[in-house]
Amino acid sequence: MSRPGAAPGFHAEIQDTTAPGWLRLLEMIDEAAADRREEFRPLRELSPEHRRQIVTLPASIGRLTAVRALVLYGSNLVRIPPEIGEMASLEEFDPYTSGRLHWFPYEITRCTRLARSTVSTRALYGNFKFRPPFPQLLPPGGTALDLDGLAPDRWGATGARACSVCAGPVPATGPYQAWLSRVVATDVLPLLVNACSPACLDALPPGAKGYFPTPHRGGAIEQPPPR
Length: 227
Prior knowledge:
The protein is α/β, with parallel strands linked by helices. It has one domain (about 20-200). About 15% of the residues lie in helices and about 15% in strands. The chain has four helices and seven strands. It has helices at about 20-35, 50, 150-155, 200, and strands spanning about 40, 70, 90-95, 105, 115, 175-185, 185-195. The strands form two sheets. It has a four-stranded parallel sheet, with no helix packed on it. The protein has a three-stranded mixed sheet with strand order 4-7-6. β1 (about 40), α2 (about 50) and β2 (about 70) form a beta-alpha-beta unit. It is globular, with a radius of gyration of 17 Å. The model is unreliable at about 1-5 (pLDDT under 50).
């Protein structure tokens, strides 16, 4: 087992919801939901400037229940919202060369038809080639939070209302968080769990073979050596 160096932090960017690229993305999601298209390649229709304005996907991505292929090649994304788990028909997920995507929401495991994925492995926390460290996760505090306005540099996301495991409500003091590396389609992805309770964390399955075997909080953990 090798001991990683100092843990990195989360990306702190917050989506500018007035940016033209973001507004156009909202329109494209509305159009794709209305015509029930099976392939969604939103970035291809945006200029390079507008693509750079998008650092996450809107929650409305969950409306795309007919989409079978989601292609986000070459994006500027730093996070994917948990609503991706509502894309019930998703079979192919391609965020390749999105070098700022280091992790994914645990809710992506709800996409039970997902069979093919193409990600930039070297950018992932805990990847088998380099074993880069995971950001340190902290337990919930003792004060109530705005669960729709979380600080992404602390929580990884700007919102967390539903448990990643049971879909129940997250307590007002914030989610119980854990990292878990699991096979998703054709890749092992580092997944961020936002749970409603320690019991839901205890209910998580083991990690992928050759990766850290249990849910963990990141930071100075000892990972298996690179391969």
